[in-house]
Amino acid sequence: MWGVREGSSRMFPQNGRVRAIVVAWAALGVGAAAACADPPGGNGVKWTVEASNPDDNVTAVRVSGTPYQMGWWYGHLLAGEIRENLDDGIAWAIAETGMSQEELAQMASVLWAFRMGPFVPQDFHDEMQGIVDGAAEAEPNVTPEILLLEVIFYHVMIELSEFNCTSIGAVAPATHDGRLIQIRVLDFDLGTGCQDNPVITVYRPDDGPAYCNVGFAGLIGSLAGINSEHIAVTEVGLDTVGADLERLDDPNVQALLEGIPMALLLKKVLAQAQPEGPTTALDKALQIIQTGPRTTNYGYGVGDGTLPDSKGLGTTHAQCYIYGAGEFISFNDPGEPNTIWEPDLPMSITLPAVPGVAYLPHDADETLDLIDTSSPNYIGPIDPNSAMQIARRVAMDSNLMNVVFDGQDLKLWAAYARDSHTSHRAATREFVAFDFAAAANAYTIDVTCKKPNQGSVTLSPDPSDPNIPDYGYPSGTEVTLTAEPNGGKVFKTWKIYDPNHPGDANYMVTDANNPITIVMNGDYDVTAVFKCGGGVGEAMPPLVIGAAILALVSRRARRAGR
After folding, report:
1. pLDDT at 519 exceeding the cut of 60
2. What is the DSSP code (8-state) at residue 112?
3. Do 468 and 431 have their domain in common?
4. Which of these, 284, 234, 291, lies nearest to 259 by C-alpha position?
5. 482 and 402: one domain?
6. Whole-angstrom Cα distance, residue 355 to residue 34?
């Protein structure tokens, strides 16, 4: 929670202008890209993850391509949800801090431009710019510079807030069959309104592992996530110094915020943690957090479903303490002879060793009561179902989101609060199941006719087939395309754009065969070309697959020359 204060900090001059700060971002690579009227390439698809109670449905998107392209599709597909979440977040911050919108903008701008932004990977700057451009194309009334500032504000806000959360990573002997089960309980403030626009995002970058963020519209950073290398990440706030705004006048406190923001640090872990020679994906993940540079005090849970193994981390701006599953950890506890005295961590906590578990809870006794085998209330070996029970039982009244990860099968279960009433906090809501592995390995095909009045195309299986997921054809599916010319026309050729061709994402081949079969190992664009014939042939209805393709929300970029 942010501390309430009066007036402006000396750090943020009264005559500062938002647009003037935007100029400073150019040096960071933010705001340098021009808005695109047409899709810039890449691919995006949006669908609904359904619960038995529609109130618990969750929006999902999958974005593919370069960082800018992934951001563009994210912004284009979620423009309305992003706009609503940012408006709610700013209104909440104004109410909590007593600061004006202009003061908040100045604060976020200065912290980003001089304390945080320089440490953020260029890929993430590009993604933010893509979000702005994609949203502006979807909603023409969006002012790109202001939306960019608001997206940045969303990520800075987290560094100035106090989280009370729980992270649990469990492997053998604590789990049912030795697999990694990672639990994330996010307790913050139901008044933020972000739970009204929950989003599960699957990123499929051109380079690096695919990964999944479980969070909220407009937040590209990760509060909980998993990647295709079976790395799962969670987070816990540890008395973050930025939560007291009065202290931000102190240059020493400002220096503690100099680093990559926590949510973007976890995103970096997901985007980059993969095996490299003898270095495991878990080693790489820990190295990224260790080297940072980090901002302020956070605890992290990092699990590797391949090994499997789980680690906990207690960090300050300068120090990083790592402990393994089944290991004891203690900070600043005068009653514990083996405690770690860490002056920059203003808290006292001792976590007894639990075999197979690396945990960092908001309430140690309550959590131990459920996971310690010697406890009369021991919940039993941890599997996804018991993990969901644990999340519900340790959650606070401010419970915004709960997530359970299966690190072996790359599946997750997520539950979100539904409004600001504690009776509707995430612990009371249904967990929706999400198969990250399946969503990351499915593809769409966008079929058009060069002149729609000359013919149509049918697909088998059709995208609307109930056996085909909303997010596309599973990898390896064979799809047969049949061109059907209208009366007086004949089929001429297919133009097939192959996104997987080495070194050329715009590679195109032609094929005069009809029908043709495509093996779905990428997102394809196909154009059917007809020509005038001898007047034979039965008239066919106009392009019959349009509705099916629109149902997939697949709008891959059109290339010149079609």
Report:
1. yes
2. I
3. no
4. 291
5. no
6. 53
pLDDT the model gives residue 314: 95
Average pLDDT along the chain: 86
Tens digits of residue pLDDT in 439-494 = 999 999 999 998 889 999 999 999 999 999 999 999 999 999 999 999 999 999 99
Residues 332 and 225: their CA atoms lie apart, in Å, by 30
Residue 468, helix vs strand vs coil: coil
353 shares a domain with 214: yes
User: DSSP of 346-383, one letter per residue?
Assistant: ---EEE--BTTEEEE-S-HHHHHHHH-TTSTT---SB-
Q: Give the residue-averaged pLDDT of 289-293.
A: 96
Euclidean distance between CA atoms 431 and 413, whole angstroms? 6
Higher pLDDT, 545 or 26: 26
Query: Do 245 and 333 reside in the same domain of the chain?
Result: yes
Q: What is the pLDDT of residues 88-127, one digit of tens each?
A: 999 988 888 888 888 888 888 888 998 999 999 999 999 9
Domains in the chain, number: 2
Domain limits for position 539: 443-551
Which tokens in the block code for residue 192? 């933020």
Which of 382, 407, 439 is at the close of a domain?
Answer: 439
Cα distance between residue 183 and residue 179, in whole Å: 13
Q: Which helix (H) or strand (E) holds 497?
A: strand 489-498
Query: What percentage of the chain's residues is helix, strand, coil (to nearest 5)?
Result: 30, 30, 40
CA distance 233 to 225: 5
What tokens were used for 450? 């060069």
Query: How open is the CA angle 347-350-354, to the nearest 5 degrees?
Result: 145
* Residue in the structure block whose two tokens are 């599946």: 411
CA 15/CA 103 separation, integer angstroms: 10
The reported pTM is 0.88
CA distance 518 to 480: 6
Nearest Cα neighbor of 308 from 358, 266, 353, 270 is 358
In a domain, 18, yes or no: no
- Kindly indicate the confidence band of residue 168, based on its pLDDT and cuts at 50, 70 and 90: very high
